Input
Amino acid sequence: MLALIQHYPLLIGFVLIALDMLLWHLIAAGRRALRIGLRVGLFLLFTGVLISAGVSPLQPAPWAEDVARNLLATVLGIAWWLFAARVVTVVTGVLLVARSSHTGRLLQDVLGAVTFLVAIVAAAAYVLNLPVKGLLATSGVMAIVIGLALQSTLSDVFSGIVLNTTRPYQIGDSISIDGTEGKVIDIDWRATRLLTGNGSLAVIPNSVAAKAKLLNFSQPNDVHGVSISIVVPASVRPRRVIDALEKTLQGTRALLSNPPPKVAIKSASLESVEYEASGFVASMGQKLEVRNHMFDLAHRHLEASGVIWNADTQPARAWNRQRALLEDVRIFRALSSDEKDSLSQRMTSVEYLADQVILGVGDTSDYLLVIGTGVVSAAIRDGDKLIEAGRMGPGEVLGVEGLLDADQSNAEFRSLTSCLLFRIDKEQVRSCLEERQEVKTALTRLQRTRQQSSQSLLEQKPAVIKKGGFLSWLHK
Output
C-alpha cells in the first residue's frame, strides 16, 4: 500500500478529492455533522498520503530533475492548500450558523473569501516559491484600482457586515426602509430583499439600509403599534373629536391596556385639524383587522357626536339622531324609508353613566335597546365569574332575547363610558318581524352569531404555564 501511495500519489490524491466532493453531494444537508466529519477525515487522510509520498505543502517539490514527478507533486501541494481552505471555511460556517442562524452567513462568505485568498498566496509562496512580496505589492496597487472601481459594492459588503452584527432586523421581520415596507426574506452580502404588501420584491442595497431611516414593526415581539389618522374641519371643537376617538379606543377590545392607547392632535390649520388615535396589539397579524375596526368605530362615534365631516356638504334630508341611527342598525336595513321614519318617532332615549349595568344575566327587557353614543361591554358567565365577550358601539343592539324565542339573556351588558341608548318597544319590533321576513332573518343571524361567539369563548382552554428556573430543574 505504501509503495502504491509513493508511486501514484497524484492518483490517490485525486481519488480522495473526488470522493470528498461525491460524499458531500450525496449526504443530505440535514446530516451536517456527518458531512463535516467525513470532510475533515478525508482531508487528514489526504495530508497523510502527501507526507507518505514525501510531498510537503510548506516547500517546493523536491524532485527538480524529474519534471513529471515534480509537476505532480506541485499540483498536489496546491490542492492541499485549497482543500485546507475549504475545510476551514466549512467548519467556520458551522460555528457562525450555530451562533446566529442566518446572520452568520454573510460573515461566513467574507471569511471564506479571505481564507481562499490566503490559501492562494500561501500556495504561491510555499509550493511555487514565487516572490510574494513583489506579488503583494503589485496586488496592493491592483487592489486600490479595483477598490475604487467597486467602491459602491464594497460599501454594500461592509454595510451588510454592520447590519448582520448589530441586527436591527432579521429574516421574517416586517420593516420599513425609507418608506419601503415589506417582510424581510433574505439578507446577503450586497442587499436586503423585502416582500412588499402587493407581492412584489424590493431589493434594498445594504449601504442604503445602513444609512436610511428604518422602522422594525416586529420588535419588540409582544407589542405592535397601530394607529389611525382622522382629519376633521377646524370648525369642530377638538373636545368633541377627542372624546369620540377615546370611545373608539375603549371600544376596541384587542388594544392592550399597557402601554395605554391615546389620542393626540397631529397638526392643525385654518381649514382642518388632524387627529391620531393609537394603541398597541399583541400580535403583528392583528394590525390590519384592528386598524380597519378602529376606522369603522371612529366613524360611528364621530357621527354619534354630531361631527360633520365636510362643512360644505349637507345631508339630503334633515334626520334626527334616532332616524339617522336606524340607517346603521343591520336588522332594520330591509325596512323602507317610511317604515324607518315611523319607527324612529316611537324611539325613546335613556342615559347611563359609566360602569352601570344595563342588562344583567337572566334579565328580560320589554325594549330593544339601540346604542346611540358610548361603549357597552358584553360579558358572559363562566361559573362564578364573568368573561368579557366583546364591546359594542353606536348602531349595535342589545336585549334581542324574547323576540324569536323565550330565552333569557345569558350575558351582562355594562356601560364602559357614559352612554345614550334608544329604546324600541318589542311589540313594534315583532310587528316588523311579521311583516318583513328579511328582518326576522337578520335577527336570527345576529342571535346565532352571538351564541357561537359565546360558546367559542367558553370552550377556549387557558394557556398552560410552563415551569422554569430552579423548580423546573428540580422536577427534571
Q: What stands out?
A: The longest strand covers residues 224-233. The two ends are 54 Å apart (CA to CA). The first helix runs from residue 2 to 7.
